[in-house]
Amino acid sequence: MQTPAPFGYERATSVDGAIAALQRLGSEARVIAGGHSLLPMMKLRLANPEHLVDINEIAELAYIRLEEGVIRIGALTRHVDLLKSELLAEHYPLFRDAEEVIADPVVRNRGTIGGSLCQADAAEDLSAVCAAVKAEVVIRGADAERVVSMADFHVGPYMTAVGDGEMLTEVRIKLRPGAGSAHEKVERRAGDWAIAAASAAVWMDGSKIADAGIALSAVGLTTIHLSRAEELLRGEAPSEELFAQAGEIASEDCSPMADGRGPVDYKRHLAGVLTTRALRRATARALHQEA
C-alpha cells in the first residue's frame, strides 16, 4: 500500500480550536503539523486515523524564547529554526548537533519538534535530546494544562502521555549553571535514521559533575534513558575511565534488535562508544574547552 486510507481533514487556526476539534472528533483524530512522520505511516497503513487536524496555521505555537530562566519552545517550531537558534546553540548545543544530522533540508523546513516527540519513534533524535537535558513538556486540554517530564512522556512504542482531546503545546528546558551537552549519531548515509545515537548533558560544579542526563535513540522499543549511568557520574570528576564505564552501562542497558542496519552486538557496541563520545564532548563544552 502506498496510499492512506480515507480520512477527514480539518484546519485549526488556534490552540483552542484545535483542542475543540480533537474533542469533537474523538479518539481516532490525530494532529498533523509537518507530516513527515505521520504521512509515511499512513501511506503504509501503519497508522489509520479517521480525521486529521492540521495545526500549521497556529503561529502562536512557533517560537524559541527565554523566560525567567527557562527556554520555551513552541510545539510547532520547525527543525530548521532549532538548527539556527543561537539561544539553543549557546546553552544546549546538542540541539544543533542533532539537527545537523536529521534528515535533509526538505524535512527540516517542515518537520516540527512537537511532531517528532509525539510520534514517539525510538529512532528519532529529538526525543533523546530532550530526555538528556531533562526537558518538560506542556500538554493542554480543554480545561487545563499539565506539565510532564520527558521521563514520563513516552509510555511505549509510538505512545505518549498525550490523551484524547489533548495536544502538546510547548517544551521547557531549565537553564542551570555549568551546563554542557552533545549529540552523537551513526547512520548508514547522511540523513538516514540512526543505527544508534546518544545524547548527553552534564552540569558541572567546579571540577565535579553535579548532574548528568544521557539518552539513546534507535537501540530499543522506546528512547532509552540511562539512569544508571547518570547515577554513576554524579559527584565524580570527569575522566576517560569514568566515561568508559558509562559507555559500558549504555551497552548493557540498551535493548537493540537485529535488522538491516546491523546485528545486536554491533548496536550495543555503538551505543557504548557514542555515549562515551557524547559525554566527552559535553564535558569539554561545560568546561569551555570546545567551541
Q: How would you describe this protein?
A:
Helix content is 36%, strand content 26%. Helix 10 runs antiparallel to helix 11 and helix 11 runs antiparallel to helix 12 (264-286). The longest helix is centred in the C-terminal third of the chain and has 23 residues, at 264-286. A hairpin with a 2-residue loop joins strand 4 and strand 5 (70-74). The strands form 4 sheets. The chain has a 5-stranded antiparallel β-sheet. The chain has a 4-stranded antiparallel β-sheet with strand order 11-12-13-14. A 3-stranded parallel β-sheet has the order 1-3-2, covered by helices on one side. It has 291 residues and is of the alpha+beta class. The N and C termini lie far apart (47 Å). The chain folds into 3 domains: 8-54, 2-Layer Sandwich (Uridine Diphospho-n-acetylenolpyruvylglucosamine Reductase, domain 2); 59-174, Uridine Diphospho-n-acetylenolpyruvylglucosamine Reductase, domain 3, CATH 3.30.465.10; 179-285, Enolase-like, domain 1. It has 12 helices and 14 strands. It has helices at 15-25, 38-43, 79-84, 86-91, 94-99, 105-110, 113-119, 125-132, 150-153, 227-233, 240-253, 264-286, and strands at residues 8-11, 29-32, 51-54, 64-67, 70-74, 136-140, 145-149, 154-156, 159-160, 167-174, 179-187, 194-205, 208-217, 224-225.
